[in-house]
Amino acid sequence: MLIATAGNGSSADSTPSPSLPGPASAAPSADSGDTARHWWRDAVIYQVYVRSFLDTTGDGIGDLAGVRTGLPYLKKLGVDGIWLSPCYPSPQHDHGYDVADYRDVDPVYGDLAEFDRLVADAHRLGLKVLLDIVPNHCSSEHPWFRAALADGPGSPARSLFHFADGRGVDGELPPNNWRAMFGGPAWSRVKEAGSASEAPTGQWYLHMFTPEQPDLNWRNPAVAADFEDVLRFWLDRGVDGFRIDVAAGLFKHPELPDSPDPAADERTRDSVNPLAWNQPEVHQVWRDWRALCEEYTARDGRDRLLVGEVSVRTPSEQAAYVRPDELHQAFFFHLLTARWDVDTFRRVITEALTDIAGTGSTVTWVLNNHDQVRTVTRYATEPGGGVEGIAAGPGGGLGPARARAAALLMLALPGAAYVYQGEELGLPEVVDLPDEVLTDPIYHRTGSRQHIRDGCRVPLPWSGHASPFGFTSGTDAARPWLPQPAWFAEHATDRALADTRSFWHLYREGLQLRRSLPQLGEGTLRWLDSPSQVLAFVRGDGLVCAVNFGTEPVSAPAPGLPLLASGDCPAGTLPGSTAAWWMHAPEAQ
């Protein structure tokens, strides 16, 4: 990846940076053959949160048949594939991320036959299918954990998890000071079988999320062996790869000592505990999984993808996960968390292209997912974004304009991209859900609405002017599992398709150009000299992308009308909070 810098009004920026390693000069991928055939390197994948996509049974919960019904819509949008949220049997304490059986489908979503039909239909349309896999923890209703409770201390069943005696005179204190990501201690005490006490007086078990999600002990070889079998089960059913939940987790420090960063507040999410995350042993798991995927690729020449949810502090730490023999890709969350600021965006993009692309992988860009506040609302609450009206729902201030500009920027960057369902409709966050309908365990563990995720998971509006907006095919009495606000009508799919100025058409046109222009996808990026509030770069041999992070118009970095713009963009001008693409090679090059 070649990056030359010049710009943002700084004399220091006017000096070209040294050439940085990219796919052409980095260590070769473990895949054989020309990297041009590796579909995942510049793919755009659409994240389907199954229970909120489309309901065909009338129970108010989305299902696999609904996803299958929506495939032509996604094909028309122009994405390359879909990532399905967990649809395994689950008590749904964390909506599928508490898995009770890794080799089946929860009846609320369908069955294995319906899953097979979904994969077959997707492949007929040329769409890839990625399945979410959850290896860090399972459900407390998983047969393994039930056996661990029944068999007692010291049993082989307990060695599949992290059971430990408590501290204190009678073991009444947790084994260490670790905190759970969703609030409270990371330990729960059990009532041993045969105990005369009604209170839990036995051992403690580790759960880095909720008590219903006990962490698996990956130091026990049986865990790795079982997950290899799970991967084969789904690969044999035709999936094209896996999104890996908590990919920096799995291994904990073997002695389970106190964390050097204890969370004093029960509402604090202990995401920086170096003893629970990012342990060095985890990399061998990804080498083993990569080798398994290569085994399948060798049979039919079809790449299987591993993309990890790798939440680490720096891009250089993330780069260790996408070395040529480990994960193919890892979500680059630093762009998702970047505040609306030209210097911040430039820094995180440069770090990604330096550290991630330097491994031979491509950067996997993401602006939103099922755990984050939607971009329209997030950018509206940034400085100068105008938060007025956000509580009322339909966005506000500069949020929609900034979200459109960020989408066009992401689609212009080298590498792959993931789009969360509803982002193509410009859906804002639903911030005023009543307390009594909230399902997020973060809320129920902390009593706080801060960081809750229900607002980005409200079922999609498809058509009409009132809830359920075509989401459910049931009777009028059937309600979506989370209530849809009345203003969702403004964002319904039928309206978006009819309005050529909608978010949907911006995404579709951007995806079409991304596929038709060789300058986009993989390739080079070179920064251009630009005003202080503008981020501008050249892709390949002449596609210019520029984003005005300010609110006042500036001169465009290329003459003429743009190929595509996130808002009105007269020739010679780049308005505030707007991104645009031009097919031109400026003299500044």
Task: Please explain how this structure is put together.
The chain has 589 residues and is α/β, with parallel strands linked by helices. It has a domain of 383 residues: Alpha-Beta Barrel (TIM Barrel). It is 24% helix and 12% strand. It has an 8-stranded parallel beta barrel. Strands 12-13-14-18-16 form a 5-stranded antiparallel beta sheet. A 3-stranded antiparallel beta sheet has the order 4-6-5, with no helix packed on it. α1 packs parallel to α2 and α10 runs parallel beside α13. It is globular and about 80 Å long. It starts with 43 loop residues before the first strand and ends in a 6-residue tail after the last strand. The N terminus is likely disordered.
